[in-house]
Amino acid sequence: MVKEVLDERSKKVLYSIVESYIRNPEPVGSRYVTRRYALGFSSATIRNIMADLEEIGFLSQPHTSAGRIPTDKGYRFYVDYILELQDLTYDEELEQFFNKLNNRIEQIRQEFNINTIFTETTDAISAFTNYIGVITPPRPQSTTFKRLELIRFKADKVVAILLTNEGVIKNKIIKISPDYTQEDLNKISDYLNREFEGVTLDKIKTILNEKILNEKDQYNSLIVKTIKIYEEALSLLTQDIFISGLYDAINLPDFADISKIKELSNAIREKHLLIRLLNEFADHEGVQVIIGNENPIDELKGLSIVASTYKDKDRNMGVIAVLGPRRMDYSRTIYMIDNVAKLLSKTFD
Hints:
Blueprint: H1 8-23, H2 30-36, H3 43-55, E1 59-60, E2 69-70, H4 72-85, H5 92-109, H6 114-129, E3 132-135, E4 145-154, E5 157-164, E6 169-175, H7 182-195, H8 201-214, H9 217-238, E7 242-244, H10 246-249, H11 258-269, H12 271-281, E8 288-291, E9 304-312, E10 315-324, H13 330-348
Antiparallel strand pairs: 1-2, 3-7, 3-10, 4-5, 5-6, 8-9, 9-10
């Protein structure tokens, strides 16, 4: 953790500056810190400490006569510091937010429609924070198969309806060979529904491939057709991500510049980049925070991300996250994401 290189005076000053800048996006001067925080140091002492913090990379000075603003390294100190002290914001507004969201999730849960839960959760997060709310649906390696229905639509098209035990329902028109009859489709769905209920989606694919090698030739034609259809049906789950809040975020002062808005909208449009990044969080426990240039994906380096996994008992299912500016209210956001992830996990349980 970067804070280990600092003495106690420097930690207090740096914490005060980051917190001040999060509240108000104006460079922070030594006089302001002296007036706002009872640190017990003179303005001159604080000014010297700020100069030292700038020299070692925790602060920067946009103009010679201006105060300082945090760098990514400064924000990282702040996040590590509040996590260690558990200095996370919880207030009446958050309590009302959680109660309202929990009640709404309970209502939707009766409908067995997890997609609606994801949509309304991301909408609620973005409306409350003015950041972008994101949820990835359950991953194939965590999601268990319940049922697949295949209905012939045209000579070369089929309506596939996939239902999982976690409540994910997907339907899509998929292209098939005209050689497939409705009888073939019925055999495929009957076989999958009979043999694989409760098996993870990834495991089914492995089992089907093994059967091609082990079963008799007369059985192979059905298995081959089943694999082709199943791979198409599996794609219904792997291409999804739930995103809300772009228009809320662009109203923040951090995105006042048109180039920043383009950067943000491009990051959201390239969903595969978000999926790739969030999948890296999927096997981690607890809240994870990436700040600016810590981001491994170039297109997302202008943003900070707070993410956590939601679970079905001990299985990590997917990821819930917020994307926002580096000048994010980390204390409140970390607390919120941690507890919304727990709400979603309770829903699966």
